């Protein structure tokens, strides 16, 4: 941790899934990790190693079968379903591999959506969307429908949307996997910038281009952490 305050703690965390009537899949096994504030952490490993499951556990989309998870000083297990939904909205930003934008909405409306759900009034949400669009280099595309944007532009909208409520934890699942080298480099720089500004950014990825930007690289195999390297 190098003296950094932990934004995320996982203690003896495991997650199993049942396939059929007898088969059990151990997607994550006995993971103990801490992710610091103001850091960029990569979670790397082959397909099926548990990377996406780990992100889903940290984000409260899945509950652990065993162990304890603390995010921004809150034990996720202590929250009711309604409180957990509110927690995710305000404290955790998600960047999905397939973007998950609403095609019929403009770039601005997609960015504003988390703010609207959090009860922010339209003038303020619009102002925040404009500022975030400028930050990700899309201030000239605010009115464009999501479906008309390129892959790199859609990913930048997804990042802006994830940052809308200024979450202390930002989770990204293969954010550069479907992008060319130029668009991918832009995304890398944006994620690194979010960490520099104080967020704990955790990225599940195969992309070795991100390694020079990382404060910590966690490598997984078969649901287990097999190596942790700190920058």
Low-confidence stretches: none
SSE pattern: EEEHEEHEHHHEHEEE
Estimate the global geometry from the Cα principal axes.
Answer: globular
Beta content: 25-35%
Q: What Rg is obtained from the alpha carbons, in whole angstroms? A: 17 Å
Let me know the number of strands.
10
| Terminus-to-terminus distance | 10 Å
As laid out across the biggest beta sheet, the strand order is 6-7-8-3-9-10
- Average pLDDT across residues? 92
Given helix and strand content, the structural type is alpha/beta
Major beta-sheet overview: 6 strands, mixed
Descriptive labels:
alpha/beta; single chain; 6-stranded mixed sheet; 10 strands; 4-stranded antiparallel sheet; 231 residues; globular
Concise account of the structure shown:
With 231 residues, the chain is α/β, with parallel strands linked by helices. The chain has helices spanning 51-58, 81-91, 107-117, 122-135, 151-163, 181-196, and strands spanning 6-19, 23-36, 39-44, 66-71, 74-75, 92-95, 169-173, 200-205, 216-221, 224-230. Strand 7, helix 6 and strand 8 form a beta-alpha-beta unit.
Written description of the protein model:
With 231 residues, the protein is an alpha/beta fold. Helices cover 32% and strands 30% of the residues. It has 6 helices and 10 strands. It has helices spanning 51-58, 81-91, 107-117, 122-135, 151-163, 181-196, and strands at 6-19, 23-36, 39-44, 66-71, 74-75, 92-95, 169-173, 200-205, 216-221, 224-230. A 6-stranded mixed beta sheet has the order 6-7-8-3-9-10, with helices on both faces. It has a 4-stranded antiparallel beta sheet with strand order 2-1-4-5. The N and C termini lie close together (10 Å). The mean pLDDT is 92.
